[in-house]
Amino acid sequence: MKALRDVQKRIGTTIVMVTHDLNVAAQADRVISLVDGMIATDADPRSTGQMQAIKARHDEIEALRATQAEQ
């Protein structure tokens, strides 16, 4: 992640990163989470409350998917 930050600062560009790891996402300047191709949340990861909301939504979706898989 540090290497990406260094490149971003040196070049002065935007980096779009795709990850399923919320810990990695929390290091970004902005976190946009998608559910079935639609924006579910758009948050500032420096806000603990917003990241907790993203994690809660992520957990909710994972639980729903697990339930659907069992059926």
Brief descriptors of the model:
71 residues, alpha+beta, two-stranded antiparallel ribbon
By DSSP (H or I, 4+ residues per run), the number of helices equals 3
The H-and-E topology, N to C, reads as HHEEH
Low-confidence stretches: none
- Silhouette: elongated
Q: Please, how many domains?
A: 1
Strand order of the largest sheet: 1-2
Estimate percent helicity. 40-55%
Mean pLDDT: 86
Which sheet architecture does the biggest sheet show?
Answer: 2 strands, antiparallel
In what range is the share of β-strand residues?
A: 15-25%
Instruction: Determine the structural class based on helices, strands and strand pairing.
Output: alpha+beta
Radius of gyration: 14 Å
Count the beta strands.
Answer: 2
* Straight-line distance between termini: 39 Å
